[in-house]
Design brief:
heterodimer; A: 156 residues; alpha+beta; Ubiquitin-like (UB roll); DNA polymerase, domain 1; 2 domains; 13% strand; B: alpha+beta; Aldehyde Oxidoreductase, domain 4; 3 domains; seven-stranded mixed sheet; five-stranded mixed sheet; disordered N terminus
C-alpha cells in the first residue's frame, strides 16, 4: 500500500511502485483530467504539480509521490476558478481541449514563479506543452491576462 | 404529464418522453447535476430539443465534437429560431440516431453546411408547436402568441407561460414543415460570439474524452501491430507476458473475415493483431515488453472492396517492404510515364512547343501522421445479444454497418455513444479501432477499453499520402501565360483537383494524374489532396509571377478576372469573384503594398476547397538564424460566420498547424517500418514557434455558411513557401522545409 496525498485528499493505493503517477491517477483513482499524450515527457498533456513543481506524470514513478503533495487539474482550485482557468474561459482558448489541462498546470507554475512574465518567458515555460489544434496564441494571451488579474487581485 | 399524454407524445415524436441516461450525464460534475436532471422529466419535442415542465431547455448537438466547436455552433442554429436565452440552455451530445438527428458525421468541413437549414427548421418547428399549444389552451389565434427567451406571451389577454408548461402539449402536435426562417439581418444568436459550452469542463479536467471513459469491471486492451507495412504476425510466445501482474489474456485477433467487403472508411492497416488484455494500462504496457513475437513478410495480399463504394472487387495489396528513398526514385520513374488525363482545354502541347519560355518545377510532400493528441481508443462491451461502444469517432453511421457485419448483430442492437474527441483531423473517420475493441470485448466477455499508445498510433498508418506534382507554364514573347500543365502523382493516390483554379483561366490547360499502389494505408487528413496542392501550386504561381514580372496578388487577380469574364472550359469549381474577394481583402488588411512592411519576407497564397475561400499573407523574419513566421494576415470567405470568435480561433489554429506541418511534418520509411514513433522524432510545432499575431478577417456576406475546419489550412503551406523563398534567398520544393534549413529535429 502506498500513501498518496492528491488535491489535499489522502489515498491508499495498491500498485507497483514503479507505475507512473499518470496511470495511478487515471486508472486507479479515476482522476482522468490528467491526460496521456506521449508517455515519454514530450507533450506535457500529463503535467501535474509535485510539491508545487510542474512534472510530467507519465515518467514520474508513483513512489516519488509517496508522502508528497500532488495537485492535479481537478484540484488546482477548489471551484475551478484559478486565475489561469478563468483566463482560459475568458479567452475561450480551447479547441479540442485535450492538452489544456496540461497547459493550465504548466501556466499555473509559471505565474506563481514569475508574476509578470515576458512573451519570451511564456514561450520558454510552455515549450514542453504541445497543442495539436494550434491554440498557442490564445494560450499566450490567457497567461498574460491571468498575470494581470493576479496582480490586480493583489496576489502579485 | 399524464400517462396518456406520455404515450401520445411517444407515438408522435418517435421517442416521446425521454430521460437522460447517457454516460455523459452520469459523468456530470456535481455542480451541474441539477441542470442535467431537473425535477421534471424531459419532454422531447423533436430529436433536437427537450424541455422539462419547469422550463429547462436542452438542445442536442447531432455531430461529434473534435475541436471545431460544433457542440456550440450547431445548437446556436437551433437556438436562433427557437427563441431561448442562450445562457440558460443545456447543451448535450446527442445519441447516434441518424433517423432523428441527420447524417451525424464530422468531416469534409460539412457540419455547418449540412445542418444550416435542418437545425434552424427544427428550432422554428419547436417554437411553432409551443405557440400552437399555448394558443389552443388560451383559445386565442396562434398568430397572436409571441415568444421571448423561452417564454410564451399573449399581449391582449396578458397571458404568459414558460415553454416548459406547454412542452407536453406541444410534443403531441404534428411537426410543422416549411417554416419561414429569419433573415440574416434579424439574427440574435448566430453571428454573435458564444463561448464553448464545454469550456468549464475542459479547464477543470472533467471526463469528456473517450479515453476518460470508465466502467466497473472494465479491462484495458492494447494491440501489437506488425512493425512495418507488408509484415504480418508469424508466431508468438506469451508465457512471460501472462505471468505479469494483472494480465488476463494474450491472443491473436483477426479483424475482417476473408472476403469481407470493405467500404470506404473500413480501412485498416493490419488485419491481424496481437492483443494483450489486463487490468490497468500500465500493466498491459509492461506485459507487452515481455512478449516474444515473430513477424514475417506478408507478401502480396488481397482485399475485397465494395460496401457502397463502387462494385465489389478484389484489390491486390503489394507486399513490398517500402523505403522512402526507393519511393522517391519510383515516383520519379512514374512521373516520366504517360498518365491519366483529368482535364484538357485547348491545345497545350502546341502552346508549349511555341512558347518563348517554359517554367517547370516539381514539388514533393511526405506521408503525414494525424497525431491527434488523444491517441486512438474505444470502449466496447459486446455480448451475444448487443454491443455498447463509447468513444471518439467522426462518423458513427459509417462504422455501425461494419460492426453489424463483423459482430453479426442487427444494427439496432449496436449503440455507439460519441464522446468529445482529442482531435480528429480526418483520422477518426476510420473506425477500425471500434471494431477491434468490439471483437476484443466479445472474446474476453467483459467491458474493455482498447487504447493505442502514442507509438501504436503514429506507426499504425492511415496517413496523408505521399505526393508529388510537376507544374509547367508556357509564356509567349510578351511574357503572357499561354499554357498551364500539372501532372501529379502519389503513393497510393494522386492529389489533383483538375477543375480547380487556375483551370478556367488559361486557354491551354492540361491536368494529369498517376498513382503507385502501396501497402501503406492512407486516409483523409485535414483538407485531403488540397493540403498538398495548395502548397505546390501556390508556390509555383509565385515563381510564375516573378518570371512574368508581376506582383503575385496581381497575377492571381488577373487570372481570376479572366476566369470570371471569359472562362475556359467547363466545370470550373470555384467562384472567381469570391476567390478574388479574399485576395483583395488580405492585400488590404496586410498592407501588402505599404513600404513599412518591406522589412518582412512576405509570402501570399490563396486557395479554394471544401466550399470556402482562404488567403494568407505570412510575414517571416530570421530569428537566431532560423526563419520564423512572426505575423500572419488571413482573409476568409465561408459565407455567414456562425460563431465569429470560435471561427477566428479555428483559423488561427489552422495557420499554426500549417506552419508546423510545412516546416516539420513528415514520415519516412525503411523496409516497411515508419521511422518516426513519438514526438521526439516526429516534430510538432510548439509555442515558441507559433506567430506573435494571426489577424483573421472574414468577408461579410449573407451566403449560406460553408465549412472552416479545412479551408484555411492548405494555403498556409504555399504562403510559408513563398515567404521562405524571400527569407532564405532560395526556393524549397521538398516538404518539410525544416530539415533543409538545419532546424533542430526535436525540441
Amino acid at each position: 500500500m502506498l500513501n498518496l496525498t492528491i488535491n489535499k485528499k489522502a489515498y491508499q493505493v495498491d500498485v507497483d511502485p514503479e507505475t507512473p503517477l499518470l496511470w495511478v491517477l487515471r486508472d486507479t483513482l479515476g482522476l482522468v483530467g490528467t491526460k496521456y499524450g506521449c508517455g515519454v515527457a514530450q507533450c506535457g498533456a500529463c503535467t501535474v504539480h509535485l510539491n508545487g513543481e510542474a512534472v510530467r506524470s507519465c515518467v514520474t514513478k508513483v513512489s516519488r509521490a509517496v508522502g508528497q503533495k500532488v495537485v492535479t487539474i481537478e484540484g488546482l482550485a477548489e471551484k475551478a476558478d484559478h486565475p489561469v482557468q478563468k483566463a482560459w474561459l475568458e479567452l475561450d482558448v480551447a479547441q479540442c481541449g485535450y492538452c489544456q489541462s496540461g497547459q493550465i498546470m504548466s501556466a499555473a507554475v509559471l505565474l506563481r514563479e514569475n508574476k509578470n512574465p515576458t512573451d519570451a518567458d511564456i514561450d520558454a515555460a510552455m515549450a514542453g506543452n504541445i497543442c495539436r489544434c494550434g491554440t498557442y496564441l490564445r494560450i499566450r494571451e490567457a497567461i498574460r491576462l491571468a498575470a494581470t488579474s493576479q496582480r490586480k487581485a493583489g496576489n502579485g | 404529464m399524464t400517462r396518456r399524454s406520455f404515450l401520445k407524445s411517444s407515438a408522435l415524436a418517435g421517442g416521446g418522453l425521454m430521460l437522460s441516461f447517457t454516460w455523459l450525464s452520469a459523468f456530470t460534475p456535481a455542480g451541474r447535476e441539477k441542470e442535467m436532471a431537473p425535477g421534471g422529466q424531459w419532454v422531447e419535442i423533436n430529436g433536437y430539443v427537450k424541455i422539462t415542465p419547469d422550463n429547462v431547455i436542452k438542445i442536442l448537438n447531432p455531430n461529434p465534437e473534435f475541436g471545431q466547436n460544433v457542440m456550440t455552433s450547431l445548437p446556436m442554429m437551433i437556438a436562433e429560431e427557437l427563441d431561448v436565452d442562450w445562457q440558460k440552455i443545456v447543451v448535450e451530445m446527442g445519441p447516434h440516431d441518424n433517423a432523428k438527428l441527420g447524417p451525424q458525421f464530422t468531416g469534409g468541413s460539412n457540419s455547418m453546411r449540412m445542418y444550416w437549414k435542418p437545425l434552424r427548421e427544427a428550432g422554428a418547428a419547436v417554437r411553432q408547436m409551443l405557440r400552437t399549444a399555448a394558443a389552443q389552451a388560451w383559445a386565442v389565434p396562434v398568430e397572436e402568441v409571441t415568444t421571448k427567451a423561452g417564454m410564451l406571451h399573449h399581449a391582449k389577454s396578458r397571458k404568459s407561460a414558460t415553454y416548459g408548461s406547454f412542452a407536453s402539449q406541444a410534443a403531441s402536435l404534428p411537426v410543422p414543415k416549411g417554416m419561414k426562417l429569419k433573415a440574416p439581418k434579424d439574427f440574435t444568436v448566430v453571428s454573435r460570439s458564444k463561448k464553448n459550452v464545454e469550456g468549464q469542463k475542459i479547464v477543470s479536467g472533467k471526463p469528456l474524452f473517450g479515453i476518460d471513459y470508465q466502467q466497473p469491471g472494465m479491462l484495458i486492451a492494447m494491440a501489437e501491430h506488425p512493425p512495418g507495412f507488408g509484415m504480418k504476425l508469424k508466431s508468438f510466445d506469451a508465457t512471460e507476458a501472462l505471468k505479469m501482474p494483472g494480465i488476463k489474456d494474450v491472443f491473436r485477433q483477426q479483424l475482417y473475415a476473408e472476403g469481407f467487403e470493405q467500404g470506404g472508411f473500413d480501412t485498416r492497416s493490419f488485419n491481424e493483431l496481437l492483443v494483450v488484455v489486463g487490468n490497468t494500462t500500465w500493466q498491459v504496457m509492461q506485459a507487452r515488453k515481455k512478449l516474444k513475437v515473430q513477424w514475417e513478410p506478408a507478401g502480396d495480399t488481397k482485399d475485397t472492396m465494395g460496401g457502397g463504394r463502387g462494385p465489389k472487387r478484389e484489390v491486390v495489396v503489394p507486399g513490398e517492404l517500402e523505403s522512402t528513398d526507393a519511393q522517391l526514385r519510383n515516383m520519379k520513374d512514374y512521373a516520366a510515364k504517360p498518365a491519366q488525363q483529368l482535364r484538357r482545354d485547348g491545345d497545350p502541347e502546341t502552346a508549349f512547343k511555341n512558347a518563348a519560355t517554359v517554367i517547370e518545377r516539381t514539388c514533393h510532400g511526405p506521408f503525414l501522421a494525424h497525431n491527434c493528441m488523444e491517441p486512438m481508443n474505444f470502449f466496447a462491451h459486446v455480448t451475444d445479444e448487443k454491443a455498447l461502444l463509447v468513444g471518439p469517432l467522426q462518423a458513427p453511421g459509417w462504422t455501425e454497418p461494419t460492426l453489424a457485419k463483423v459482430l453479426n448483430l442487427p444494427a439496432d442492437k449496436i449503440e455507439i455513444q460519441m464522446t468529445r474527441m482529442g482531435g480528429g483531423f480526418g483520422r477518426r473517420a476510420y473506425g477500425h479501432y471500434l471494431t477491434e475493441a468490439a471483437l476484443i470485448s466479445r472474446k474476453v466477455k467483459a467491458p474493455v477499453k482498447l487504447v493505442y499508445t502514442r507509438e501504436d498510433d503514429m506507426t499504425y498508418g492511415i496517413y496523408r499520402p505521399m505526393y508529388t506534382a510537376t507544374y509547367r507554364a508556357a509564356l509567349d514573347a510578351n511574357k503572357d501565360l499561354i499554357a498551364f500543365h500539372v501532372k501529379g502523382g502519389g503513393i497510393p493516390e494522386h492529389p489533383i483537383h483538375a477543375n480547380r483554379f487556375p483551370a478556367g483561366a488559361v486557354d491551354n490547360y492540361l491536368a494529369e494524374g498517376w498513382e503507385i499502389p502501396s501497402n501503406i494505408t492512407i486516409g483523409a487528413f485535414r483538407a485531403p489532396r488540397s493540403n498538398f496542392n495548395a502548397a505546390a501550386e501556390q508556390s509555383f504561381l509565385d515563381e510564375l509571377a516573378e518570371a512574368m514580372g508581376k506582383d503575385p496578388i496581381e497575377l492571381r487577380l488577373e487570372l481570376l478576372k479572366r476566369a470570371k469574364e471569359n472562362p475556359v472550359g467547363k466545370n470550373n469549381d470555384y467562384d472567381a469573384d469570391r476567390y478574388a474577394g479574399i485576395l483583395k481583402l488580405v492585400r488590404d488588411k496586410s498592407g501588402w503594398n505599404q513600404p513599412e512592411n518591406k522589412k518582412y519576407s512576405r509570402g501570399v497564397a490563396a486557395y479554394f476547397c471544401h466550399n470556402s475561400y482562404a488567403a494568407h499573407v505570412v510575414d517571416m523574419v530570421m530569428r537566431d538564424g532560423q526563419p520564423y513566421v512572426e505575423r500572419v494576415f488571413s482573409a476568409i470567405d465561408c459565407g455567414i460566420v456562425i460563431n465569429p470568435d470560435a471561427a477566428t480561433n479555428m483559423v488561427q489554429g489552422a495557420v499554426v498547424d500549417g506552419i508546423g506541418n510545412a516546416f516539420y511534418g513528415g514520415l519516412t520509411l525503411k523496409n516497411g517500418a515508419v521511422e518516426q514513433t513519438n514526438f521526439y522524432n516526429y516534430r510538432l510545432i510548439r509555442m515558441h514557434e507559433a506567430p506573435q499575431k494571426i489577424d483573421v478577417h472574414f468577408v461579410q456576406n449573407d451566403i449560406d455558411p460553408t465549412g472552416l475546419g479545412e479551408p484555411p489550412f492548405p494555403p498556409v503551406f504555399g504562403a510559408v513557401a513563398n515567404a521562405l523563398y524571400k527569407a532564405a534567398g532560395k526556393r524549397f520544393y521538398q516538404q518539410p522545409f525544416g530539415p533543409q534549413l538545419n532546424t533542430p529535429t526535436a525540441l
